[in-house]
Amino acid sequence: MRTVAIVPAAGSGNRMNRGVSKQYLTLAGKPLLVHTLEVFEASAFVDAILVVAPSQDLEFIRSTILTPWNLKKVCGIIPGGMERQDSVRAGIEALSPETELVVIHDAVRPFITEGLIGSCVRAAAEEGAATVGVPVKDTVKEVGPEGRILRTCDRSLLWLTQTPQAFRRDLIESAHRAAVRDGYRGTDDTSLVERLGIAVRMIRGDYGNIKITTPEDLVIAEALLAASRQAKG
Fold first, then answer.
1. Which residues face 27 on adjacent strands?
2. What is the dihedral of CA 166, 168, 172, 178, to 10 degrees?
3. Which of 94, 127, 172, 233 has the greatest number of C-beta atoms within 10 Å?
4. Residues 6 or more apart in contact with residue 197 via CB below 8 angstroms
5. Contacts of residue 227, Cβ cutoff 8 Å, sequence gap at least 6
């Protein structure tokens, strides 16, 4: 089944307090976006990649990200929208007619692995929709607007959702159309599918598959990369 990865990279990264968008920050001398794209470039489960970026950055990505790092699977750079959901929808609308499966992955999750991509794609091919995630480690409290605890949640049922998330093309298209029709805004793409009454498969992910959104996250990323390199010798 032809599989296309959509990588939304249109965020501004305001929480980073840097003068550059977070997807272009460097980790070990390489932009975060490059780290992420290289994993999809190497994956046997992905046939092509669409990068969704701010309209003013399209040429920058082409000349600074794709060409110098020889990222040949990127078949298009699509202008993004106001929010992540709009950017993903722009990527979906740009899919080639023969695309059957869609993988969506945050540009600033550079520690994704080929194994997780493969597991997610296989599950989506079998069941229609899949995401990766990890069980929560801490006790979770539901807190009311006045700052008082309402209840302690059952931790055994709670997972932190990550990306990649993979879908049959017709399913994710329908979910985004319904969201536009209903004015619904979700925090991820599986939430758009869930509201249609469709079950999404959760696959055990990796606690190291972090999303880099704050300066502290970048420090953690540097430590993870150093540990990974040391383990490889």
1. 30
2. -150
3. 172
4. none
5. none
Q: What is the 3-state secondary structure (H, E, C) of the chain?
A: CCEEEEEECCCCCHHHCCCCCHHHCEECCEEHHHHHHHHHHHCCCCCEEEEEECHHHHHHHHHHHHCCCCCCCEEEEEECCCCHHHHHHHHHHCCCCCCCEEEECCCCCCCCCHHHHHHHHHHHHHHCEEEEEEECCCCCEEECCCCCEEEECCHHHCEEEEEEEEEEHHHHHHHHHHHHHHCCCCCCHHHHHHCCCCCCEEEECCCCCCCCCCHHHHHHHHHHHHHHHHHCC
Cβ density class 83-99: b for 16+ within 10 Å, e for less: ebbbbbbbbbebbeeeb
Counting every residue written for the chain, the total comes to: 233
CA–CA distance, 213 with 11 (Å, rounded to integer): 10
Partners of 7 in beta bridges: 51
- Model-level pTM? 0.95
Q: To which residue do tokens 């970048």 refer? A: 218
